[in-house]
Design goal:
The complex is a heterodimer. By secondary structure, chain A is α+β, with helices and mostly antiparallel strands. Chain A contains 15 helices and 27 strands. In chain A, strand 1 and strand 2 (30-37) form a beta hairpin. Chain B contains seven helices and no strands. In chain B, helix 5 (95-110) runs parallel beside helix 7 (150-181). Chain B is mainly α. Chain B has two domains: 2-68, Orthogonal Bundle (Helix Hairpins), CATH 1.10.287.110; 95-181, Up-down Bundle (Monooxygenase). Chain B starts with 8 loop residues before the first helix and ends with a helix. Classes of the chains: A alpha+beta, B mainly alpha. The interface between A and B is large, with 60 and 50 residues.
Chain lengths: 625, 182
């Protein structure tokens, strides 16, 4: 297990139990679930042997839901209730979604928190709910295949996802009843899959990830099991879907289709385009058949050379982020060890050729570009679940987009620049500009542009209860924390009085905690489950985790770091927690956990310090001159 | 036992408190430290332990970023010696230096009008880089010499800050040009 430096498993109830964990690639077009079984990470197929689950959800009037292949079959007949590529809407506002393209057949309605809802016969669905339905299907597949409940999962996200998009993904996991141990960046996952595959691959790795709807490029350094992301760049609205759209436009011109086609023809156009693109991976030319609105069949031919021309603008568009990532990483093209290809769209020959040309080396394509991300996520999930106590692998990621706040005149002031290693905390001091001012509004944004309106709005905060003082006398320290998942949180304190200012978080395009809670409650009622039972289960899991961790710790070094009184206090709190754990009151369990944590605070700090010192032993003293 | 959170950054990495830096040692110790405290190593632990782990991982990242960057390291060292630099304070630079800055800025502004803007920018960036490097060498000796000329070091740091801003602008221009031309 991952706890500190323990070699002995202590007295935990089941020390060598293998915990079921899975890695989930929640993709724009397809999703996959993978797990480590018998030491091998592999994607899990459904009952029909299919690994890829199309990221498509179909809603029926009776409330039943189809996911995957079954849903995709409905796409042509019932386009309005069949949601595809929902990942593109995650964490986005209504206006953003409209900007994504007018080709979308769905009817969007504005949600309360600015999040777009898709109108279906089964009611208005948020992108988070649709994603949760996909995740629930994958969860079911994994639990059936692995034969038990999942301890936890790692869900991958494009490296270039901003806070709102990450939060939406995590919320979807929660809604699907998953314990999301970590959000992992897709390119990092791919590097893990390759890095552990090839033992001597220390050096700089570039991951070029062109999926259905997103493009990412990351520059990483691998050094003895530590993956350090140096820089990442990309475009969250660029991918294979855009290629399909360009091909579909070409088809329309060729077939002489005027005006805007109906939804049915739109689907057929895109499907035909996609099939032609895939056929041209192997073939030099492919014949095309398309049924038009009037029932006529149109026939034509698309050659590889013509396809290359059609998609060239998109391929070129991916190279600008490549240049930026290298510049940010301070890496010359000559220093690159490997280039890894990820995402189904990297099968397109023109893409491979352009990437090879740009980086001056043949890209790696050994692992199936559709599966590599899920495989990497499964490896990380296995380690986080505690199945590989001796594993030295560690992932150090960065924040992909600068984090800033709005200042006077609608300008952005950057607080944490992009590509800063996470977790990170930065503070910024503010003051009041009026006598007796007791509140202050803050607008947090993410992005690189000067003007606030060109950046992504993350949240608006209001600081209240500032003690009234003369203008400029109050010193309000606002701290921005970005955790290892890339999720942002903010705290504020008035320094002169020590008053913790009250913060109201209102995510610009996300769900408030209350909304997530409500959605959970709704889905519970649906499944005839009970919120109380769920809470109890959650607290029991947390209690088990805390008990196991403290027991292992005490067995390892309790005598070293604790005197008799301290030890007795902790033992008593452990007993109390164990007693509460045996009961059915989730509040009592929560309280007992908090009590144990408070009693053990000094112990935990001492262990962490000792841990750091241990890591530094052997380097000390003699190196000081 | 004092907490590592209050230790100075050099001691945290078991490095001598001076400007000259063994970069390879810093990098490898950074990885060792993160391996011992990163929240991912505590995924199975309770909330409290994970919070503490995150706090330490954050601190180590901060320390690493500070020591890795020549200017930040210099400022931090000056701060440890009781001479924190106030950014609000107006900088007194010699007229020769200001003239040089104006000249470089002017040339940066004219890059776009050159026949080959990217090549022109590249050569200008190299010139800026070598001027910066020369200041850094001076700074290293001001900070690490027995005499420890703190005021000279402060002046050099302030000059170098002019250059980093210039370098940033050059980089932004390079990004813009590449996006436009390539």
């Amino acid at each position: 297990m991952a706890l500190l430096t323990i070699s002995e498993p202590g007295q935990s109830t089941a020390p060598h139990q293998h915990r079921l964990a899975a890695g989930i690639d929640l993709g724009t077009t397809n999703s996959l679930v993978a797990s480590v079984r018998n030491g091998v990470a592999e994607t899990l197929p459904d009952a029909d042997g299919r690994h890829r689950l199309p990221s498509v959800v179909h809603y029926r009037a009776d409330g039943s839901v189809d996911v995957g292949e079954a849903a995709r079959e409905q796409a042509a007949d019932d386009p309005l209730n069949t949601i595809v590529s929902v990942k593109r809407f995650m964490g986005r506002g209504v206006d953003d979604v409209k900007r994504l393209g007018t080709e979308l057949p769905y009817e969007f309605v504005g949600g309360e928190s600015g999040m777009p809802l898709i109108r279906t016969v089964a009611g208005d669905k948020s992108p988070v709910q649709v994603s949760a339905d996909i995740l629930a299907a994958l969860r079911q597949r994994a639990e059936q295949t692995l034969g038990g409940e999942l301890t936890g999962v790692v869900i991958t996200v494009p490296a270039y996802f901003d806070d709102a998009q990450r939060q939406a993904t995590k919320d979807a996991g929660k809604l699907a009843g998953l314990n999301v141990m970590r959000l992992l960046n897709e390119p990092t996952a791919a590097a893990v899959a390759y890095g552990l595959d090839q033992q001597d691959s220390d050096g700089v790795i570039v991951v070029y990830d062109l999926g259905g709807g997103t493009f990412d490029v990351s520059v990483l350094r691998l050094n003895q099991g530590v993956f350090e992301v140096l820089a990442t760049a990309g475009d969250t609205a660029l991918g294979g879907d855009d290629m399909d759209r360009l091909i579909a436009e070409w088809l329309m011109r060729e077939a002489g289709i005027q005006g805007s086609p109906d939804h049915g023809l739109q689907r057929r156009l895109l499907q035909t385009a996609c099939r032609a693109k895939e056929a041209l991976t192997e073939a030099e030319e492919t014949s095309i058949e398309l049924t038009l609105e009037d029932g006529r069949d149109w026939r034509g031919t698309l050659t590889r050379a013509r396809l290359d021309e059609i998609i060239e603008p998109l391929v070129k568009k991916t190279l600008a982020p490549c240049r930026r990532a290298l510049r940010d990483a301070g890496i010359d093209r000559g220093d690159i060890g490997e280039v890894v290809m990820v995402g189904g769209s990297t099968r397109v020959p023109r893409v491979r050729a352009a990437v090879g040309e740009f980086f001056g080396r043949e890209p790696l394509v050994d692992i199936d570009p559709d599966k590599v991300v899920a495989v990497g996520a499964a490896i990380q999930a296995d380690i986080l679940a505690g199945n590989k106590p001796d594993d030295e692998m560690l992932l150090l990621d960065v924040i992909p987009l600068s984090l800033g706040i709005e200042t006077m005149g609608g300008l952005t002031e950057k607080i944490i620049p992009r590509n800063t290693t996470i977790p990170v905390t930065r503070g910024q001091e503010f003051t009041t500009f009026k006598d007796g001012q007791t509140a202050m509004a803050l607008h947090v944004v993410q992005g690189e542009r000067e003007l606030v309106e060109d950046c992504r709005s993350l949240a608006r905060f209001e600081l209240r209860d500032i003690p009234p003082m003369a203008a400029g006398a109050a010193r309000i320290l606002v701290s921005f924390q970005v955790d290892a998942d890339g999720l942002v949180s903010v705290t504020a304190r008035e320094e002169t009085s020590g008053v913790q200012a009250h913060i109201e978080v209102k995510p610009s395009y996300g769900l408030t905690d209350q909304e997530v809670e409500n959605m959970l409650r709704d889905s519970m009622e649906h499944a005839k489950d009970d919120m109380e039972a769920r809470r109890l289960r959650e607290q029991q899991v947390e209690a088990d985790r805390v008990l196991e961790a403290i027991q292992a710790a005490l067995a390892a070094d309790g005598d070293e770091f604790l005197d008799a009184d301290e030890r007795a206090a902790i033992d008593a709190a452990v007993e109390a927690l164990r007693a509460a754990r045996g009961g059915t009151d989730h509040r009592a369990i929560k309280q007992a956990i908090e009590n144990l944590e408070s009693v053990a605070t000094a112990y935990v700090d001492r262990r962490m310090n000792a841990n750091i010192r241990k890591a530094m032993t052997g380097h000390a003293v003699d190196e000081f001159k | 036992m004092s907490s590592v959170l209050t230790q100075n950054f050099f001691e945290l990495f078991s490095l001598p408190v001076r400007y000259a830096l063994d970069r390879a040692a810093l990098d490898s110790r950074y990885r060792e430290l993160q391996r011992s405290v990163h929240p991912d190593r505590f995924a199975r632990a309770g909330d409290q332990e994970r919070r503490v782990a995150m706090q330490h991982a954050t601190h180590i990242n901060e320390a690493y970023q500070t020591l890795k960057d020549p200017l930040k390291r210099a400022r931090y060292l000056l701060e440890l010696r009781g001479r924190a630099i106030d950014d609000q304070q107006t900088v007194q630079a010699d007229p020769g230096f200001l003239m040089q800055q104006m000249d470089l800025r002017e040339r940066l502004g004219e890059v776009r009008e050159q026949d080959d803007p990217l090549a022109a920018l590249d050569s200008l960036a190299r010139e800026i880089g070598s001027l910066y490097k020369a200041l850094e060498t001076e700074l290293a000796s001001a900070l690490d010499n027995e005499a420890q000329d703190t005021e000279q070091a402060v002046a050099l740091v302030q000059k170098m800050q002019f250059f980093t801003r210039l370098q940033q602008e050059a980089q932004e221009l390079e990004a813009d040009l590449e996006d436009e031309l390539l």
